[in-house]
Amino acid sequence: ALLGFATLWSGGRGQMLALAVFGVLLLLSRPFRLQVSQFKTAFLGFFCGVALVFLSGEAHIFLDSFHRSVARETLNGISSNRLGIWQRSLDALGEHWLLGFGPDAFIRLQVMSSNIVQPHSFIVQWLLEFGLVGTLALLLLLGTLMFQCASTIVSKQSTSEEAIVAALLVSIVVFAFFDGLFYHVIPSSLFLALALIFARRKAAAIKG
Fold first, then answer.
1. Which residues contact 160 (CB under 8 A, 6 or more apart)?
2. Cα 182 to Cα 56: distance, rounded to the nearest angstrom
3. pLDDT tens-digit profile of 134-185?
């Protein structure tokens, strides 16, 4: 219920997109589909949380977010200025495109004069901080993890719990593409912990 309430109340379009990806990936998992009845309480709680947003009269943030998606005339406006932020961030790389500027480059370079502290995309953030070399290395590691997640989701031998964790990891990456999840310590740590648990279970399954 809390997840459903927070998702709609916050009005975050990236968050809602990630949630939609999470749901679609679960539907692609045969083990999850076979055991979906076990999670009916979780689904009911989620939709009750969504209903509470409207019943409490706090749906204006979500409705405003939806309005921005259909009413703005430019892509940058629709993206809440993300395209502009990304463009200015990439322009700031200059001659340092190969190795980047190190941690917190976005703030140190004063890419934006406002109170924005990160570029709202983990790829742009990595390019600024680690350059092309570091970004490609990190994307290789992340791509390997995403491949393992995809394999787990479509595999008939996976458990529904493994499919849920794999789908959650993929949806977090989708969210991080449009927001600063990997800039902040807590979500980054939670993602790494979840990825470690997933990798250990996969390794144990291979050995077993």
1. 29, 31, 32, 34, 35, 38, 39
2. 32
3. 999 999 999 999 999 999 999 988 989 899 999 999 999 999 999 989 999 9
